[in-house]
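User: Just a sanity check before I run the rest of the batch. Below are the C-alpha cells for the first item. I only need the designed sequence back.
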C-alpha cells in the first residue's frame, strides 16, 4: 500500500501542514492545522493510501523560559 506522510509544523510564527516536502497554510492555530491535516489524511486513506500524521510542536528553550523557571531548573 502506498504511504503518504503529513506533518503539522510551527514555522516562522504560523502553523503549516506539510506533505512530501511542500508546506500548506498558514493556519492561525494548532487545532486548525491538525484538522486540515487530519481531513487530508482521511481522504488519502479513502483513496487507498496509508496515511501518517506527525505533529511537531516547538520546543521551549532555556532562553525562552521565564527567569524564575531557569533558576529552578539549575
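Assistant: Here's the designed sequence for the first item:
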Amino acid at each position: 500500500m502506498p504511504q503518504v506522510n503529513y506533518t503539522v509544523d510551527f514555522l516562522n510564527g504560523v502553523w503549516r501542514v506539510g506533505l512530501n516536502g511542500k508546506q500548506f497554510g498558514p493556519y492561525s492555530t494548532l487545532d486548525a492545522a491538525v484538522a486540515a491535516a487530519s481531513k487530508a489524511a482521511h481522504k488519502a486513506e479513502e483513496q487507498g493510501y496509508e496515511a501518517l500524521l506527525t505533529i511537531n510542536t516547538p520546543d521551549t528553550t532555556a532562553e525562552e523560559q521565564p527567569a524564575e523557571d531557569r533558576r529552578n531548573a539549575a
